[in-house]
Write a structure and sequence with these properties.
heterodimer, A: alpha/beta, four-stranded antiparallel sheet, about 30% helix, globular, disordered N terminus, B: mainly alpha, 11 helices, binds adenosine-5'-diphosphate, binds magnesium ion
Chain lengths: ~280, ~300
């Protein structure tokens, strides 16, 4: 949970943009903006999936994205690491800045972007390779030098999976349970040491015990990484996130604030209706 | 309380069940027609070849004298055609794997989703249905005459390549399409380039399907007679082919040649040839089935 006061991060602009706003005397180091969306819109063909989104995502915090299904949560998440590039009909306008640089600029290679912004998907998708090779894959293709074994162990430890798999690193990643597979995918994502980790409903296919493990892990990860996580589970968002974005039907970012503020005194009636389960 | 049957008013089931039984009987009958015909054919061929199929048959060249083929005779058989067919199929495999997989990867992974692409894909599917003699004529015109390869092993292999290429491309495309997008996304997600995604994730996952499709097409090619007849497979080869541009014999052609000879004994020799051809064919299919079975379990 956030230990800083509400509405601090939002007042701080990305470095390359307008001069920093007055931060109200609060420690600036803890509230660095990593990602900022400026009038970011996403279309599938002629359909607009996201209305202009303006948002600043803070470093080393967990930002949750909640909202009814089909409201554009995945669309927004996938526009951050340009995973939408793979969809022919998908078109993005506006800006999405990563450390001040618009990732949709001509000179940005989406492959380079994805090395800084890792991703974990809804359904665990390990490769049909050994546990070791799964974790080492990103290291290998990114040409990360160093002691490969140590890097793999470190990633598995951070993903809280090491103790369960250290004796069978050569076993297929597919032989693990669903929860273990998802932690393996998290290990694979963090092994090359990205700065941001995007997670799209990473626990929705898991049982409650595995879900709890993933949730603990996410809190742990936010010490070193910026985590942006989509969840359809509001309790989960409340438990694990520092900040919460609420999207509502039609792809509108209806609220973005400290998680506590969102859940305890939502500013708009529609958000409150959603939070209290009146729809969605 | 008296027990009246609560289901009394349900009266239409007997009739429906009868219709169901008739339907099943028809389906079983259809299956049997196929199986019986196949078994009869096989039994007939094996019966005809009985006593004529020996080790000598596999290791000696053909002869004009039917007695030579019999055990205790001077020794004659299918050797040059057997080796010729194996060379032919090996070369064809080499060409089709590269061309077929290359084309499939382009069409499936790279080609833009335009009308031109779908037109090309539709035409490839159509080419799979073109009669093999047409490919034979094409091979004769292009490889034998125009490219001056002559009636050679290479010309034969290239002709068979053209024949099965459409089938291999379609099979490979299907195998590539069957690789779940979640696997591609996993690789893209850790910063792989498109080429790396295809090399490390897509191809390994699609390979069993590609191999199975290729081997099944090759087993069709090995039995084809028309194309190699047009390209000019020899029937009087007494040695195995020794160069790409040299003459070659092939089993279907050799069998055809025996079958049209007047002496009754040659029908037995032809049957023995058919048994050898079928054995090679079934062995190839068995490998295909094994690959499918062995690797299916590993896929996500
Ligand atoms: N590949 C796609 N092609 C066309 N429309 C899509 C595609 N993906 C998502 N959409 C549409 O965009 C909207 C938002 O979808 P999505 O971002 O997946 O929602 P969420 O993750 O919140 O459930 C939906 O209306 C959906 O139908
Ligand atoms: Mg979604």
């Amino acid at each position: 949970m956030s230990d800083t006061g509400p509405a601090i991060e939002t007042s701080i602009e990305a470095e390359t943009d307008t001069a920093r706003g007055d931060s109200g005397g609060v420690d600036q180091q803890t509230a660095e903006t990593v990602l900022s969306a400026r009038d970011l819109e996403v279309f599938y063909g002629d359909e607009r999936a996201l209305k202009p989104v303006n948002a600043e995502i803070t470093e080393k915090k967990v930002t949750a994205i909640i909202g009814p299904s089909g409201c554009g949560k995945s669309t927004f998440l996938r526009s951050i690491n340009r995973m939408n590039d793979m969809i022919d009909v998908c078109r993005v306008t506006g800006e999405l800045r990563f450390k001040g640089k618009n990732v949709y600029d001509e000179d940005v290679d989406p492959v380079a972007l994805r090395r800084k912004v890792g991703m974990v998907f809804q359904k665990p998708n390990p490769f049909p390779k050994s546990i070791y090779d799964n974790v080492a894959y990103g290291l290998k293709i990114q040409g990360k030098d160093g002691d490969r074994d140590a890097q793999v162990e470190e990633a598995l430890r951070r993903a809280a999976l090491w103790d369960e798999v250290k004796a069978k690193l050569d076993a297929s990643g597919l032989d693990l349970s669903g929860g273990q597979q998802q932690r393996l995918c998290i290990a694979r994502a963090i092994a090359p040491d990205p700065e941001v980790i995007l997670m799209d409903e990473p626990a929705s296919a898991l049982d409650p015990v595995a879900t709890a493990q993933i949730e603990d892990l996410i809190e742990e990860l936010s010490r070193d990484y910026t985590v942006v996580i989509v969840t359809h589970n509001m309790q989960q968002a409340a438990r694990i996130s520092d900040r919460t974005m609420v999207f509502l039907t039609g792809g509108e970012l209806a609220a973005f604030d400290d998680t506590q503020a969102i859940f305890e005194n939502p500013k708009s009636q529609r958000v409150e209706d959603y939070i209290t389960g009146k729809f969605g | 309380m008296s027990t009246t049957n609560p289901f009394e008013d349900v009266s239409d089931l007997d009739r429906k069940r009868t219709i169901g039984r008739v339907f099943v009987a028809l389906c079983i009958a259809s299956t049997m027609v196929g199986i019986v015909a196949l078994v009869t054919l096989l039994a007939d061929v094996i019966y005809e070849s009985w006593g004529w199929l020996s080790l000598e048959f596999l290791t000696y060249p053909p002869s004009r004298f039917p007695e030579s083929y019999l055990p205790g005779g001077r020794g004659a058989g299918i050797y040059p055609a057997l080796v010729g067919s194996i060379f032919l199929i090996a070369l064809t495999a080499l060409f089709t794997v590269f061309l077929g997989v290359g084309a499939a990867i382009y069409l499936e992974e790279y080609a833009p989703d335009t009308r031109t692409t779908s037109l090309i894909e539709a035409n490839i599917a159509n080419l799979a249905g073109v009669p093999s003699i047409v490919y034979g004529l094409l091979g004769l015109a292009v490889f034998v005459r125009f490219a001056r390869m002559g009636q050679s092993l290479l010309a034969g292999a290239l002709t068979l390549t053209l024949l099965i290429l459409p089938i291999v491309i379609v099979a490979a495309q299907e195998a590539l399409r069957a690789v779940p997008d979640s696997q591609r996304e996993a690789a893209y997600g850790v910063g792989a380039t498109k080429w790396e995604v295809i090399r490390d994730v897509v191809l390994p996952a699609a390979l069993p399907g590609i191999m199975t499709g290729t081997i099944l097409s090759l087993s069709r090619a090995i039995g084809e007679t028309a194309p190699i007849l047009m390209v000019g497979a020899a029937t009087s080869m007494f040695v195995a082919p020794d160069s790409l541009l040299g003459p070659f014999a092939a089993m279907p052609m050799q069998i055809f040649d025996w079958a049209r000879l007047p002496q009754a004994e040659f029908q037995h020799v032809a049957a023995a040839g058919i048994v050898v051809l079928l054995t090679v064919l079934l062995a190839m299919n068995a490998v295909a089935i094994y690959i499918r079975y062995r690797f299916e379990a590993d896929l996500p």
